[in-house]
Structures are given as structure tokens and as C-alpha cells.
Design brief:
- By secondary structure, the chain is mostly helical.
- It has 2 domains: about 55 residues, no CATH class; about 160 residues, no CATH class.
- Helices cover about 55% and strands about 5% of the residues.
- It is built from 10 helices and 2 strands; from the N terminus they run E-E-H-H-H-H-H-H-H-H-H-H.
- The radius of gyration is 24 Å and the shape is globular.
- About 5% of the residues have low confidence.
Length: about 230
């Protein structure tokens, strides 16, 4: 390996970067990579310090977290644990996620976990939420963007419309779009309400007009209703 080639990014010394070589001249690193590596180490040390500061009394109960995230639910699945679900408390913890998208991610994971725990059919959640991707869905204007997010944007809108007409968009696609599509909070909370209305087997999945005035309280009520329906 040439001394003028960075062992990390493989750049060569042609743009004025300073290169640092090892004592045995068997590796080198450019100034850009050196700075990024230093920053990474500093960040890791800072995170470790923060973790130490947050250590609490080991006699506290194990389930005192103030939030249920999607990762938490995945860990229950991986551990194969039979967690006792407290619908009122769990709804509050899910809504404690820092934004609406994270709420939806946790809610989707929790709903599937609860469905499995309650011995529902493996497609129960998908089947219950079909209204979200049907022609009369309140989110029909998002279908093309949701399709592109899942399958790429190499298709024209006309081609995608043909695919949509044949039912190509599935529930997972629309949930993923609202979970990771960088949409505004009100838009995502509206979808969260409709998702829950589907799981609760409500007659209408249209979000209420006053949802934006108090989204978490309204959604919490619908969430508990949905959880009871999933368990039944």
C-alpha cells in the first residue's frame, strides 16, 4: 500500500490533504478520516459518561421505563417473553415517544406483538387495516408516494396508478410511509388514529376534526379500544 493512500477511505494525496503514517509505515490515514475517527471516539466516550450518570438504584422494578419504543417490543419478541400487558399504562408509554412517527413505529410493533400473544390469525392486523389501502381510504392521495418509497421511483405516476388499481399497495407499505416518510406531526397522528380505528373495528376510520387540538388524549382512548379488540 502506498503511504499516500488512506487506509480508511482509500483516497490518494492529490488534493492537499495531510496523511499520517503508522510507525511501521504499513498504514496511513488522511486528515479527514482522522477527524471523523476522533469525533466518533469523543461521542462514544460522551455517551458512556451519560449512561453512567443515568444509572439508578438497582432495587427499582424492571418495568419502570417511561416509554415503550419499537425496539423494546422487538426485544420482547426476541426474548420470547410473555410480557403482561397493561393497556392503559402501555398506551401512555407508547405515546411518550418523542414524535408521531416513533409513536406509529412502536404502535405497529406492539399491535403485532399483542395479536401474536392473543393467538390471533397471523394476518389479523393486515386484514383489519385493509381500509387504509382501499379506494375510499382517507389517505388515497398518499398512495403514489407510498408506492415509490417501498418500490423505488423508477416508475411514472401513470404506471404506478395501474399498479394501484390492481391492489399493489399493501398495508405494510402505507404504514411504512407514515412511519418513515418525514411527514408533519398532525398528518402522522391522523394516520395513527385511522390505523387504530381499523384495529378497533370502528365503523369509520376518518380522524376527528378536533384531533390536532388534543391528539394524545384522543388517540390514547382509541388505542385502548384497539388493544381490547386485538386481545378478544
Amino acid at each position: 500500500m502506498s503511504d499516500s493512500q488512506c487506509s480508511f477511505c482509500l483516497s490518494e494525496d492529490h488534493d492537499g490533504r495531510k496523511y499520517l503514517t503508522s510507525d511501521h509505515n504499513d498504514a496511513c490515514i488522511c486528515s479527514n478520516c482522522a477527524m471523523m475517527l476522533t469525533q466518533y471516539v469523543l461521542n462514544q466516550n460522551s455517551e458512556e459518561d451519560d449512561d453512567e450518570d443515568e444509572i439508578t438504584d438497582s432495587t427499582d422494578t424492571a418495568d419502570t421505563a417511561d416509554v415503550i419504543s419499537a425496539d423494546d417490543v422487538y426485544s420482547w419478541r426476541d426474548d420470547g417473553s410473555e410480557r403482561e400487558c397493561d393497556f392503559d399504562g402501555d398506551a401512555t408509554l407508547i405515546l411518550n415517544n418523542h414524535d408521531a412517527s416513533s409513536v406509529l413505529q412502536a404502535l405497529s410493533a406492539y399491535s403485532n406483538y399483542l395479536s401474536d400473544k392473543s393467538d390471533q390469525h397471523e394476518d389479523f392486523v393486515r386484514d383489519a387495516c385493509q381500509k387504509l389501502v382501499q379506494e375510499n381510504s382517507p389517505y388515497k392521495d398518499k398512495f403514489i408516494d407510498a408506492y415509490k418509497m417501498s418500490y423505488g421511483d423508477d416508475y411514472s405516476d401513470d404506471d404506478i396508478k395501474e399498479q394501484l388499481d390492481s391492489g399493489a399497495l399493501i398495508v405494510d407499505d402505507i404504514v411504512s410511509y407514515f412511519s418513515f416518510g418525514n411527514l408533519d406531526q398532525d398528518t402522522v397522528f391522523n394516520f395513527v388514529y385511522s390505523y387504530l380505528a381499523c384495529l378497533a373495528n370502528s365503523h369509520s376510520i376518518e380522524p376527528p376534526k378536533n384531533l390536532s387540538s388534543n391528539p394524545k388524549e384522543i388517540i390514547k382512548s382509541k388505542m385502548i379500544e384497539a388493544f381490547h379488540n386485538l386481545e378478544s
